[in-house]
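Long-time lurker. I teach an intro course on protein structure, and each term I like to show students one example going from raw sequence to a predicted 3D structure in token notation. This year I'd like something fresh instead of my usual example. Would anyone be willing to generate the tokens for the chain below so I can use it in lecture? Attribution to the forum is fine with me.
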Amino acid sequence: MSIRTKKRTWMVPAALSMTALIGILAGCSGEKEAAGSSSTQPSESSAVTPNKPVTVRFMVQNDPGAPMNNDMPWVKEFTKHTGVQFDWIAGPENADQYKEKFNLTIASGDVPDLMESPGDMLNKGGEAGTFLSIDKYLDKMPNLKKLLDSNPAYARALKTDGGKIYYLPHFLAVKTNNTFLLRQDWLDKLSLKQPQTMDEMYNVLKAFKEQDPNGNGKADEIPFTTRNKKAGLNGFIEPFGVSLDEDFIVENGKVGFTYTNPKLKSALAYLNKLYKEKLIDNEYGTNDTKIWDQRLSTQVSGMTWDVFARQDYFNKSIQQVNKDVNMSIINPLKSADGKQYTKNQQLPIATTGIAISAKSKNIDQLIKWADWFYSQEGQLSYNFGIEGDTYTMVNGQPQYTDKVVKDPKLAAGSVIKALGRLHFVSKLDIRYENASQSADVVKKRDDAAKFVTDRFPKEYLSYTPEEREIINAKYTEISTFKDEMFDKFIYGNEPIDKFDDFVAKINKMGLDDVTKVQQAAYDRYLKR
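-- Reply from a regular --
Happy to contribute to a lecture. Here you go:
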């Protein structure tokens, strides 16, 4: 069913996904910023001296691990520095439901002072006049301006083709993001080596399934599990030369569609084999975080695809009941030609940002509030919290206190989130990334950075109204169909030899028109 825009409203392509970016674990930078780099020094201009405290409404996507309230320690800290307090509006945890609430809120005309969302949605709102054009206020935001001037990739990612900035960004710090994590102690018990190829991965999963590595005498192992639905299978797909981190792929300068690429057919055949033999979780399409966590923590599953810092999290949680547990990170699997790569990364700025309502009565105050986070003082506070409580200065460098790094139950990133450092604009600090993870995770994360390849920058593209009409009218239907068929191919409900028919049907849905739009938007992006 086609979706068309109505007069004076704007729609969101259904394929866009809400990414929880400011969250519990390591972030990653992208494109040209080297992992571990922290060369940009923020401005010393950091003081905010409001005439009086203000309370603003702030709509965010709810996180069950840290429902926001004004009594959280870091919320109090930020309020102390900026004078801005919050009336929190918690949107649904589910990404699609949050998008729906976001759109309904815009349509109602009762727009909160601040709204969190993927940048594409905020840009559309800005073009419709809903959100403030931040670029007009850069002379009042010296810290943000300095960051944008410091790295061309920042400005290219944030600005629209017309040079407008409609949201406040989260600047990221490292490159790598998701990875395979597996039970090294299971490998050792079964006298296996870490898998490096697709065949070796199959053999490891089969051994996990059949040789009782959890030692309970039952054939209850689910070798691989995930909480991220099909995206959690990406580590099995990238060795074939395509990635679920980009719906569109650039090859020799030409934009194509990942889901009609012949390389995906081979990946689906491999996944179908794993699924039929129950080597991957047969409930991957419905698992939530709770089920995923339970399967790994209770040692039913021995492998997943998730953020690097989960190595520390699971080692700490599972070792409470089994001291021999050793969750470990492995590098991307090799393709048939021996090459290794991953496009699972975050880019120069996060895909989610915060916009200011054009009708807010507190615009000047919010401009000061936002710029403080980009200052030296604001960056230190955002990344490390409260001096003497969550961090101390040691030889001129901030270090987390035991309150953060030695929590008996939670990894450092989870502690940070629970203290309230969520849903604020930011410039992540590589020292935060390093301090919140073990030295082993930091080393493996940085070693893996050499495998990262730039992905299609769909999150940063801008579209004309006519192009949006094509996307909404044609791509929404294509996206829904390809998601349905992706799972059917893996489940075996649709035989792999029907892949060419699947491609033909997508082409008839208007894929050529959609890729032409993406090509034009990509070409404009390169010229920014």
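Some talking points for your students: Residues 465-491 form the longest helix (27 residues). Residues 406 and 412 are 8 Å apart (CA to CA).
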